Amino acid sequence: MSETIDVNGIDMRIRAMDERVQALHDRDMYFYNIPVSELKGSAEVVVDGRTMLMLASYGYLGLLGHPRINDNAAAALRQYGTGTHGVRLLAGTLQLHLELERTIADFKQTEDAVTFSSGYVTNLAAISTLVGRHDMVFCDKYDHASIVDGCLLSGADLKRFRHNDMEHLEMLLQRHADSVTKLVIVDAVFSMDGDIIDLPRTVELCRKYDACLMVDEAHSVGVLGKTGRGVEEHFGIQGSVDVKMGTLSKTIPSVGGYIAGSRGLINLMKHAARGFIFSAAIPPAQAAAAKTAFDVILDEPDRIGRVQRNAAQFIRGLRSAGFDTMQSETAIVPVLCGTDEKAYELVRLCQKENIFVLPVVSPAVPDGMARLRATVTAGHTDEQIEHAVSVLEKAGKLVGLI
Question: Is residue 10 in a domain?
Answer without folding.
Answer: no
